Amino acid sequence: MSYQALYRVWRPQRFDEIVGQAVITQTLKNAIITQQTSHAYLFCGPRGTGKTSAAKIFAKAINCPNQVDGEPCNHCEICEAITAGQLNDVIEIDAASNNGVEEIRDIRDKAKYVPTQATYKIYIIDEVHMLSTGAFNALLKTLEEPPANVIFILATTEPHKIPATIISRTQRFDFKRINAQEAFDRMVFILNEKQVSFEENALRVIANAAEGGMRDALSILDQTLSFGDNEVTLANALLVTGSVTEGLLADYVKQVVDHETTVGLAALQKVLDDGKDAGRFVEDLISYVRDLLLYQEAPDMVTGSDVTNDAFKTLSQATSPDVFYQMINTLNEVSAQLRFTTHPDVYLEVLTVKLAQIYPSQEQAGATTSTGTGSADLTVLQQQIQGLKEQLASLTTAAPVVQAQPARSAAVSVPAASAESQAATPKAAKAPVQKAASHTSNSVNLSKLYPILRAATKHDLDAMREVWNDLLDTLPITQKALMKVAKPVAASGAGVIVSFSYEFFFDKAVSDDELRQTLEQNLNRLTGETPVVLFVPEDQWPKIRKDFLTDHKDELAGNADNAETPAAVSETAINEPDNPVVTKAQELFGADNITIQND
Amino acid sequence: MDVTTLMQQLKTQQVQPLYLIMGTENYLLEQVRRAFKQVIPAEQAAMNVGSYDMEQTPVAVALDDAMSIPFFGDHRLVILDKPFFLTGETNKNKVDHDLDALLNYVQHPEPTTIFVILAPYEKLDGRKKIAKLLKKDAVNVSVAPLAERDARQYVESQAQADGYQFAAGGMDLLVRRTNADLSLMMANLGKLELFAVADKIIGQDAINGLVPQSLADNVFDLVTAVLKRNVKQAVTLYHDLLVLGEEPLRINAVLVSQFRLLLQVKILATRGLSQGTLAGQLHVHPYRVKLALQSVRQFSQQDLSRAFLGLINIEAQLKQTQQDPELLFNLFMLQFTNQAA
């Protein structure tokens, strides 16, 4: 008997021999077992994933008198006839060459006759996407209500070319690409059966090169076998898959990246002497450089023999992505130019020189070229750290001055509240009061408060008070209850400061991130602006305000245009008993007899 | 009247002379058609059931049929398919319909005939006299696409009736893969039940393996991968799509439109528009808006616009240069991830 290609000899004959489609084959088996077969199936998926095999096995299994658990016996007359393609009731049509209306009409007419030998008449229409529109329409009616005991199996690689009307009348199965591991296992199985020795790495290379098609994998394996006299070696596999020049490519790229023009030119000459096409070479270069780039971001993305290569790894990590981007741009230009020239060699040589002169842009240049491996990133990091250190140093010297002032003034003006106010400032660590623990965790963030205070205006506050009730209405009940004890005390375009009457609620609100987010979102919805919401406890608020005023007195006074600002802040304070006007008034009329009103 | 009530009435042989079934949910439409056909006993079906496609056959033929008395039975069933003349559409095939005769029939229907109009349209042209009359006189049944929740319920109860259950998360996955389209879900339910014939539980593995993902869904995954800066997943998906024979321009166009939607939703949502208003304003399906609102939360407007511009750039490159689309996409992904990092 003449030699048969591996993929034909080892075409699966049972459902469980189909690789990588367990769910689909199980469903088909169940359909046969429970006799719930559909009258039309659509198998789609990339080439070499088992569509036609599944269709044939299905034809056997449903007709086989000895089927067990949905699998055909493969020994009876019918099974053998189907395997050999001789059974009249299983009709395999290649739609690519029978794509006309006439052929489909023929099928339609013949489908009426009952099957002769088998129980079911099965039409397997391969490459069904090649049918013409007319042919599809002719098929529609038959597909919708086919005669009893007729099953259509349509197979295609391009399901999107099939009209929706056809798809909706079939049961559709999408075959998946076979992953490298499953292809590998299958090849191991076949080679063991054939008793051929092999190198595991060779099979891995083949499995990767096949890109999810079992047939491709077996074809390549076939070639490798014939190459190596019934032995599968890594060298042969690389040769067959065309990866052999990758070593040369790697050398070339390395030299170019290292700016060794002369050596690079020599390497180029060697590649060309090997008879490599110039255009092809440039394309290979592009994809190699792309792999280098990809390897930086997603190492497991890069498949093929490169990964095992240490030179590849170091090259990828040592070079800045910028260089690769530039290389790709240059390569693209050249590949466009190559189309119009009769002297590709010249272009390639110029290309080599150009590539060798690519330096990473910006300040990283020196680092990368001089120190090589991995140092580019390191230098940048070092620079960053240095910068951060300097910032930190300047901050630590400046900070005590800033912080000391509010603390001291607080101690003088409001002795009663001093403990708490200290807690509010970063110095709180040594605050003696037992409440301190809760304060340190939820202390008021002055650095966020001040910018808002600085820009605060009476107008903004009024606007905020106006929407405040609406805002509360938008909250869920629990949050609403919490916010009832709060009121806005200062506002600017950029933010609003909300004070809480009770410590407990303040703590609760501060620790509730969701609440703040909801507030900000809803405010945004109501006002159209995006204010930041900040919380302060009510008892601390007067002090914060006062500190702010003393701290920023000069600034505020000097800023004559902004005269509104301090006014707004002190306005908000009118409610507070320690306001001098109010205190005086209380002295005169008694605390109970005055109503404090903002206007 | 809704579909379930209609089905029940038909089962008990309570029939009216005139029905208007309207809506775009194909699956329900087919169910209704089947239910009507079952009203006529099987042995009479050949004589007493007539189905006419209005895009091919003039209405007069159907009316002739409708006006004759049933043969050896109580009822005659006449089904009008795709009555495009009730909508604003014009048909290319130029079938000459005698609408006055139909008007006449609708005013005086034969009591022994069940006259069913199956209109797979969203709405009829309300200005037309015949449409007005039908809305008034016929039994109106809506087969509009079900809302996500109803569709879920429908599928769930169907599965339960067949003795199956969904594993945790299974239903969500099915809904996501089919875009909550009832026809698709029901078509896939059959397969899923077959797979789970042994343990009667439909799990996520089965759904992943058996429910095909449309290009839009694949692209949806691709969008998520891009936004999450998952280079590996994005590049693999893109490659898969190309292997499946998709046009790069097409993939890119879908990506661009998805990102455009996300951007629009992002911007408009901050202006306080609700899901429904958004869907109305952008003229897209509410479910898409719902999903977009969910995913938009995780991304800044800047990221979205950067991705959008990058994709537009790819499109320009695809049209202007000879570069490999996969390379372009890879470069876009790498640059996008680097910028953000």
TrEMBL record, chain A:
Coiled coil, from the record: none
Gene3D superfamilies per UniProt: 1.10.8.60, 1.20.272.10, P-loop containing nucleotide triphosphate hydrolases (3.40.50.300)
Single GO term (MF): DNA binding
GO biological process terms held by the UniProt record: DNA-templated DNA replication
Catalytic activity, reaction form: DNA(n) + a 2'-deoxyribonucleoside 5'-triphosphate = DNA(n+1) + diphosphate
CDD domains per record: AAA (cd00009), HLD_clamp_pol_III_gamma_tau (cd18137)
Domain AAA+ ATPase: 37-179
EC number: 2.7.7.7
Enzyme class: transferase
SMART domains associated with the record: AAA
Matching InterPro entries: AAA+_ATPase, ClpA/B, DNA_pol3_clamp-load_cplx_C, DNA_pol_III_gamma-3, DNA_pol_III_sug/sutau_N, DNA_Rep/Repair_Clamp_Loader, HLD_clamp_pol_III_gamma_tau, P-loop_NTPase
Protein name listed in UniProt: DNA-directed DNA polymerase
Native source species: Furfurilactobacillus siliginis
UniProtKB/TrEMBL annotation, chain B:
Keyword Nucleotidyltransferase set for record: yes
Biological processes annotated in GO: DNA-templated DNA replication
Nucleotidyltransferase is among the record's keywords: yes
Entry superkingdom: Bacteria
Single GO MF annotation: DNA binding
A GO term from the CC aspect: DNA polymerase III complex
InterPro entries recorded: DNA_pol3_clamp-load_cplx_C, DNA_pol3_delta-like_C, DNA_pol3_delta_N, DNA_polIII_delta, P-loop_NTPase
Enzyme Commission numbers on file: 2.7.7.7
Reactions accelerated catalytically: DNA(n) + a 2'-deoxyribonucleoside 5'-triphosphate = DNA(n+1) + diphosphate
UniProt entry keywords in alphabetical sequence: DNA replication, DNA-directed DNA polymerase, Nucleotidyltransferase, Transferase
Positions of the DNA polymerase III delta N-terminal domain: 19-142
Cited Gene3D superfamilies: 1.20.272.10, P-loop containing nucleotide triphosphate hydrolases
Domain DNA polymerase III delta subunit-like C-terminal residue range list: 217-336
NCBIfam families linked: holA (TIGR01128)
Similarity comment: Belongs to the DNA polymerase HolA subunit family.
Protein name, as recorded: DNA polymerase III subunit delta
Species classification: Bacteria, Bacillati, Bacillota, Bacilli, Lactobacillales
